[in-house]
Amino acid sequence: MQKPTLSFGQMWNLSFGFFGVQIAYALQSANISRIFATLGADPHTLSFFWVLPPLMGMIVQPIVGSMSDKTWCKWGRRKPYLYVGAIVAVIVMALLPNSGSFDMTVKAALAFGAIMLMLLDTSINMAMQPFKMMVGDMVNEEQKTKAYSIQSLLCNAGSLVGYLFPYIFTWVGVKSVAPEGQIPDSVTWSFYIGAAILILCVLYTGAKVKEWNPEDYAKYNGIKEEDKQESTNLVHLLLHAPKAFWQIGLVQFFSWFAFLYMWTYTTGGIAETVWGTVNTASKEYQMAGDWTGVLFAVQAIGSILWAMVIPQFRSSKVAYSLSLVLGAVGFISTYFIHDQYLLFVSFLLIGCAWAAMLALPFALLTNSLSGKSLGSYMGLFNCTICLPQIVASLVGGTIFGLFGGKMVDVTTAAGEVTQVQSGQIMMLVVAGVALLLGAVAVFGISTKKLKA
């Protein structure tokens, strides 16, 4: 039976909580490298701190998807996991920016920060995944591209707010420079306010959205009585995944590989190319950190605008590939730009790739699946987001060592001289090459309707 046609308002309510979740994710993406560099992390090991979040995502997301497929209670099917993830995220967001304020050694502060990062990313992913699942559950095939585009728009609007928070707080007079080893107040207060908005947005979606009961869900998703009784584990599902799962996964690999390096190396890259410093203790480096948030906000604006264009394409594959090519041009252009405002053009283009990554893979995938194990497959599909980030994190130091610049002497706030490798901007060029490979892989995706 065809799922009901939803109004714009109903699709909006399905994804509104994503706005708050994405504020938290944006704060994490734009500030984690800055936080760990401020705590004393070396650029060669900076990408290693990004291993834990996707690793936890690979473990948690399939479990959440599988469990939510079997969960039916008075609060809903997906919403209980949304609530738990949001509550944990709020607690961790209050602790993470204080990693350098508990009078710990540098190693202890970095370890504490790494644990908080792991918990934050896990809880954000736990809160994020139910929104994708609810769209897959309740939106018909004709409306899915539009529904995921609305989700992409709200996602990028949240990113815009989260990326700008540190810059706004600095603009109104909150300190953006702190004693060595401590996180600036502008970053700390950004996390506090972001946590408050997150919980309010999640509560809004929880109040406005009523998930279907088991009977209606089975009716609209074509699930028979014998399907309900069938016990299917995650390994079995993975072995019998439709071709589209793996084909889209290959594109995902190149795409998320690229964006991990944007999150990791943008601050260090523009600090050198625009502000002329590699010294993380300098005021100029913290200015670059604030400007990274502005650039990521510009990327979010580009994503919002491009998300409105994507549904106008007749071919999802053409829209997907073109978006990744535009993002690649944006990444590679950063190498040649030394003006902070001209970088807006680069990040607007990068936003086109991001908009496509948030909408099209899920629209293509859910249309190739039955409703029986949709949550489990969505959880497994998250591994195509997590695995490339883990690989990129593990090889990031090696790639940086190969393509980075010369060693530079840096004087710390304590008066000690140390050597730091320059050339972090080259990692954004590597990101651009990865997106080009992803754009080519798009044309290998089968659009034929398949059954899971």
Outline of this structure?
The protein is 71% helix and 2% strand.
Could you describe the 3D structure shown?
By secondary structure, the protein is mainly α. The protein has one domain: MFS general substrate transporter like domains (Growth Hormone, Chain: A), CATH 1.20.1250. It has 18 helices and 2 strands. It has a two-stranded antiparallel ribbon with strand order 1-2. A hairpin with a 5-residue loop joins strand 1 and strand 2. The longest helix is centred in the N-terminal third of the chain and has 33 residues. The mean pLDDT is 84.
Estimate what percentage of residues fall within beta strands: under 5%
Order of helices and strands: HHHHHHHHHHHHHHHHHEEH
> How much helicity do the residues have?
over 70%
Class per helix and strand makeup? mainly alpha
Distance from first to last alpha carbon: 18 Å
* Average pLDDT metric: 84
Name the CATH homologous superfamily. MFS general substrate transporter like domains
User: What's the number of structural domains?
Assistant: 1
Oligomer kind: single chain
Flag low-confidence runs.
Answer: none
Calculate Rg over CA atoms.
21 Å
Strand count: 2
Strand order of the largest sheet: 1-2
The gross shape turns out to be globular
User: Given this structure, which CATH class is correct?
Assistant: Mainly Alpha
CATH-defined architecture: Up-down Bundle
How many DSSP helices?
A: 18
Q: Biggest sheet, in brief?
A: 2 strands, antiparallel
CATH topology name, in short, is: Growth Hormone, Chain: A
